[in-house]
Amino acid sequence: MNKTKEQLCRKKAQKLVSKMTLTEKVYQLRHTAPAIPRLGLSAYNYWNEALHGVARAGEATVFPQAIGMAAAFDEELLGLVADMISTEGRAKYNVQSKYNDNGIYKGLTFWAPNINIFRDPRWGRGHETYGEDPYLTSRLGVSFVKGIQGSDENYMKAAACAKHFAVHSGPESIRHSFNAECSQQDLRETYLPAFKALVQEAKVEAVMGAYNRTNGEACCASKTLLQDILRKEWGFEGHVTSDCWAIRDINEGHGITSSPVESVGLAMTNGCDINCGNLYEYLLQAVGQGYATEERIDEALTNVLTTRFKLGIIKEDENGNFISAFDAYDDNPYKNIDYTHVDSFSSKEINLKIAEESIVLLKNDDKLLPFDKNKISSIGIIGPNADSRKALVGNYEGTSSEYITVLEGIRHAVENNGTRVFASNGCDLYRPKVEPLGEKSDRLAEVKAVCDVSDVIVAVMGLDASLEGEEGDTGNAYGSGDKPNLLLPGLQQEVLDTIAASGKPAVLVVLSGSALALDKASSEFKAIIQGWYPGALGGKAIANVIFGKKNPEGHLPVTFYSEKNTLPEFTDYAMKGRTYRYMTEEPLYPFGFGLSYTDFEETVTKIVAGPDAYKTVDGVLDNKHIYFKSGDEPIDVTVKVENKGSMPGAVTVQAYVDYTDLGLKGAPIRQLKALKKVHLDAGEEKEVVISLDEKAFGLYDENGEWKLNPGTYNVYIGNSQPDRRSEELTGKKCDKILVTI
Predict the structure, then answer these.
(1) Domain topology for 600-740
(2) Which of 137, 186, 202, 205 could form a disulfide with 142 if both were Cys (CB 3.0 to 4.6 A apart)?
(3) pLDDT at 540
(4) May I ask the CATH architecture of the domain 345-551?
(5) Is 482 a catalytic residue?
């Protein structure tokens, strides 16, 4: 949307606000904004969800959960997914408006994406995020927002929202009263970069505050976050919404204020424009008692209504009258998106594609996979997630027109081969027995029987969103949504032990939204697949990978810790010892790792640094030591990627900047700073260019100041991290160049 049109929308919003009484203004600042018939304004509910598809409003494409889509390491594809989500959002909005349905989950203001950093694997909501890395989160978040909001010059397709601002990642049980304390260095290096990218690059329309406090300030009423950083430093021009009922936490949970009147006054004054909840009704009293001003309320409502003008769902006619809802956008190009676009054939095609791309092959000893279904007469499918729809969809999900579980996907894949499929849920997801009146391990004999009669076994274990998720939503056995540990719950490991003892060739498929400690399973099984919550068609995607119709190409967006690793206290927000960027212990499976059925090789063939260009001479780069200073043009690194195997596939070229030789206090060990997804046929090679500017080398110091520190940086380029464990798992070393500043 062009700047002139945006400015015009703001002027119209100001004009509309000027016609309202104070009472009308206040009630427009709740997520349930009522109609004002005298001004031609229809009711509107700002609360809608689109984390991985239009959610909670009936039929829609249910894409893989966000953490799974992150594992695809594919910016372009995520942008396409987001574009399809907003297309479905428009289709559903059009028909809902036609029939005067203005309720919750029916608008065009989508409260997604969640770009919090998945700093601790125990956090229940981590599967809503794009993982533990600020750079990956930034790139995927920017693509998602651009896909949601569209590129039309005159209208925004839908409004995205960056949440939860900021320094928010559990524990869920105390989020309404918790104070997340972090250094200025961690704040700037880890917790804020993705938000900054979405604001400044993607022009995200909305930002949602978090429930917790950050360094003593309630996030939804934080002058530091909402005024000093978001508005003044970053130049944010959209609107800020509270998380739902977070305003009441200011007095009830955090004890910062002593009454609802003071809480709404503090939130409004410090930059929270709209309240998800109903506490902003107290703004009338807050103005009367001097805790807020009508001038600031006018500003807030202008911010909020500008969004609706940009969406084209409010317009001003030639007589100066306002019209809203479906009648308003006769000239809007998105008006013609009809209901046939909902969960359509094309969206199912993209859904299957990203589900396949998200699958991460963690282990494949002796090339056990892919299975040749023509050589298998019987296959056993065992595990509580094998035939579970709940394990496909994660949370904040819509309702698909079709679901394919892993069991169904495998059965469909072999149905024309005469292969017999035996199945057992093996155990409950977390309880000690399947049947309420049964005895402990009441399916273990069945597991043994299935193993006896099967040529190969697929074990499908893990979690679902009833065990990990948002406080108040999960109702799980652990409480509040967070995991107590990283172990497979219930009797799942006992079932895996039984399968392993059978001696049959077996693959473990893990469906979960977070990292589990798979130490024992890794010692027992030759092949392990991480399938995440793979969406409505996830079972088909996993079957395609198991039988080699699709080559796995996902990479881990989070570290998979070993049972031997030490995790800092969950409530400790210092990054020391956390994630691949700061941990010194060796993980089980590192961030960025993922195997393939084929063999990729990445080689740096050319570097352009300022006026100098260095190329390979007799296959060897003639200069791998580059000199760079602030203000220089980006360093462009050309990488030749070869598929030396016998299957087509894809790999993501990753560039890491390592800072260990600089000896800087509090600095990360290394960070991902560039990525490029490459699709190659067997035997094919392509060249991609990785660009590294000064932002790739600069770091924030203890005072939160960005600096380009002098010294020599190690830059590693390959399809994984340059750590010892990744080298051990892949059998390869990354290509290395030196950059001296």
Answers:
(1) Immunoglobulin-like (2.60.40)
(2) 202
(3) 98
(4) 3-Layer(aba) Sandwich (3.40)
(5) no
